[in-house]
Each structure stands twice: as structure tokens, then as C-alpha cells.
Amino acid sequence: MADTDPPGTAARRAALRLLDAVLRKGLPLESALASATRDIERGDDRAFAHAIAAEVLRRLPDLDALIDGATAKPLPDDAKARTALRIALIQPLALGTPQHAAISTVLPLVDGGPKRLVHGVFGSLMRSGAQLPPTPSLPAAVALRWAEAWGDGMAEAAARAIAAPPPIDITLRDAGRDPAVTAEWAERLEGVSLAPGHVRIPAGSSVPDLPGYADGAWWVQDISATLPARLLGVGKGRHAIDLCAAPGGKTLQLAAAGWSVRAIDLVEARLKRVRENLARTRLQAKCVTADALTFAPPEPVDAVLLDAPCSATGIFRRHPDVLHRVRPRAIEGLAERQSAMLARAADALKPGGTLIYSVCSLEPAEGEGVTDAFLASHPGFIADPVAQEELPEGFAPDAAGRVRVLPGTLADAGGADGFFVARFRKG
Ligand SMILES: C[S@@+](CC[C@H](N)C(=O)[O-])C[C@H]1O[C@@H](n2cnc3c(N)ncnc32)[C@H](O)[C@@H]1O
């Protein structure tokens, strides 16, 4: 950083590195954060760099349309000047930063480069009163892929859902299916409940400061992500394996519902988070670092939950980077690995046991495609259709008894992550 840089420039430089990591290197925003903000001392500056990058990713096609409308010759997609302009524009247009602060801290990012162009385009857009459209636009390739898979209405609902970060959902440890306990917590947390054991609070709430967090009375988990464990019901001491467990939301649900749980994850550092979450909530599970593609339990078990690693396109509201870095070829590769994991999961079950497969993906190849192929290649398994009564209000099984959650679900109550769940029984 140059000594003459205005205060706040470091945060914009970090935002530039973050956007480069996502858009050029294809990395998840969260995993690029530590390295991109390494030279920033203050936590609020690091948070601001993150907020700028996330908001640019939320509104990227709309920002680019403004930039293209104000430049005689389109800037290349990966030009530093384009990224600098995205960072400068998003601040007054969405984050409330005064125009002069936004541009003065962005110009040093293009030192020795097209500074005048960046200044000129920013100035002319601001003078003309440029605004972002009220409904964000999806990247064209994503809009096309999702409209083809699910119809235009889904793509429109997804676009509406990007506009703002979603609310925070909480799963209660001790509520079980008792509506009175849930109602009590909804009041304490000043939230609303959309299902037994669930409370929804506004986006941006400071989670560790809320009542019950330090005592481990609840954990953060989107309502869609609660469905797989809900569909296994109460455990009564029976044995379950959570095959890709970290950070552990479903392990905690299963343990709280009385299952004897073995939590597996490939990545030891991620399994550490499961252990921390178990310690905080005072729940029990055996944590094992292992590869789901080769793991075999000592004895077959009553239930296996495979919440497989996936494109994560269902959580685009929280992680808008997925909209820009997940490509069709990657989705194909993920579906192959999910099929291999599901076959392995099937081997771990007792006869009569229940297998749950889930992904936080909006790609049919990773959901319906994997489960259709599984049933076709595993004649010893049958689909175990989900009944409407098993699901929270606002969710519904599809014609085959699987649960496909699309954008637009619970739209009036703050939405839900995109998700897919299927249940099978071993004959
Ligand atoms: C979708 S996340 C799981 C979320 C978790 N079920 C929950 O509810 O908190 C996928 C997890 O799979 C793990 N994973 C990826 N490849 C794996 C493998 N081959 N074997 C086991 N775990 C794997 C990742 O480390 C990651 O923690």
C-alpha cells in the first residue's frame, strides 16, 4: 500500500483480490477471505472488503450493464479497470458509501493504468443518476440453465432472491416436535417459527450475542437443510452414520433426536468444527476422519445420511460466488462422485435400514439424476416416498416422493435455500 493512499484503500484492494480469486481462479469467496485480507488489521475493514465483494457478486450482471452503457468500447471481462469500477459503483449504489469516498479509495487500485477512464465512467454514471434495477439479474448462463431445468418462473424467483442476504434460521436442540418449546424460543429470540424446532431471525443478527447460543440451546441451519434429518425421525438409540458431516448441523439434529451417531468427514480441520459444535450443544457423536468413498463401519447400521459435497448452487443467496464459478462440466464431475458415495453409503446399511441422500444444489443432475441412477443400479433398494405430513408448511414432496426445494419456496417469509432430498429403504 502506498503511503499516500486514502484511508480505506486497503479494504478495496482486498475486495479486488477477492473478486479475482472468485472470477478468475474459480475459488469460493469464503475460502479466499483469509489470504485476500491478510494485510488488513482491523476486523471491520476485513468485513467491509468481504461485504463489497459479496455485493458485487450479487449484482455483477447489473453493474456490468451500467459499465457497458457508459464505455464506448466494452472493457474486457477480466480487465482490472472493470473490476475497479464494479467495486467503486457498488458502494454508493448498494452499500451507502458516499461517492467521493468510493472513488478516491478505488483509484489507487488502477495506479499506472486507466485511472482517467475509471474516474470518467464512475463520474458520468453518478451524474446521470444511475441505479441498480430493483430485481437483480442472474448471470445469463445460469438463468438459461435454470429456466431450462425448472421453467422461467424459477429463474425469476431466483433473481428476486439474490437481492438481499437471507434471514438466519435456527434449529433448537430441545424442542423436538413440541410447539410450546418452539414458541417460547421464538419469543426469546424475537423471531418467527415456520416449523417445530425452528426459529427465523433477521439477516445480520449477531448470532453469538443471542440468548441460548453460549449455552448451546440451538445452532444456525437453514430450514431446507433441516429436512434430511427430520425425515429420519426419532432414533431411540438406533445407529446412524452422517457421512459428510462437517460443520455438523445434521449430526446435531440426529444426536438431539436420540440417534447414536457416527459423524464422518474427509477433512480433519472441518471435523474439528463438528467437535466444537457438539461440545457447545452438549450433544454426543463419534467423530471419524475418513473418506466417504471408502469408509465402511464395523457393523451395518440402521440409517445413513449422505449430505454429499455438491455445487452448492442452492445456497446462492448466502454465497453468490457460486453463480459465477460453477460450470456445467464441474456439475457432471460432482454427480459422478455423488453416485459413487451413494453406492458406498448403501453398503453401510442393515437390511430394512433407511438411506437419505441430500444436496444443497439446484442442478437436477446432482439430485434427481443421481437418485434415478441409484435406483436403477441398486435393485435391493426401493424409494421410500416422503409424505406431506412429514414436511414443514410450505414444502411439498414431488410426484416421486422426493423433496425438491426451489427458489420461491416460503417467498413471503424470507425464502429457503435450494435443496434436494430423497429417501430409500434397503430391502
Ligand atoms: C455439504 S457439506 C456437509 C454439510 C453437513 N452435512 C452439515 O449439515 O453441516 C459436505 C462435506 O463433505 C465433506 N467431504 C468432501 N469430500 C468428502 C469425502 N470424500 N469423504 C467424506 N467427506 C467429504 C466436506 O469436507 C464437507 O464438510
Give the helices and strands, then pairings.
Blueprint: H1 9-23, H2 29-36, H3 43-58, H4 60-70, H5 80-95, H6 99-106, H7 115-127, H8 140-150, H9 152-161, E1 168-172, H10 179-188, E2 198-201, E3 218-220, H11 227-230, E4 239-242, H12 249-256, E5 260-265, H13 268-281, E6 286-289, E7 301-307, H14 322-325, H15 328-347, E8 349-359, H16 365-377, E9 381-383, E10 403-405, E11 419-426
Parallel strand pairs: 4-5, 4-7, 5-6, 7-8
Antiparallel strand pairs: 1-2, 1-3, 8-11, 9-11, 10-11
The structure holds S-adenosylmethionine.
Word description of this protein:
By secondary structure, the protein is of the alpha/beta class. It has two domains: 9-127, NusB-like (N-utilizing Substance Protein B Homolog, Chain A, Orthogonal Bundle); 222-426, Rossmann fold (3-Layer(aba) Sandwich). It has 16 helices and eleven strands. The chain has helices at residues 9-23, 29-36, 43-58, 60-70, 80-95, 99-106, 115-127, 140-150, 152-161, 179-188, 227-230, 249-256, 268-281, 322-325, 328-347, 365-377; strands spanning 168-172, 198-201, 218-220, 239-242, 260-265, 286-289, 301-307, 349-359, 381-383, 403-405, 419-426. Strands 4, 5, 6, 7, 8, 9, 10 and 11 form an eight-stranded mixed beta sheet that branches. The mean pLDDT is 96. The structure holds S-adenosylmethionine. S-adenosylmethionine binds at residues 225, 244-250, 264-267, 270, 291-293, 307, 309.
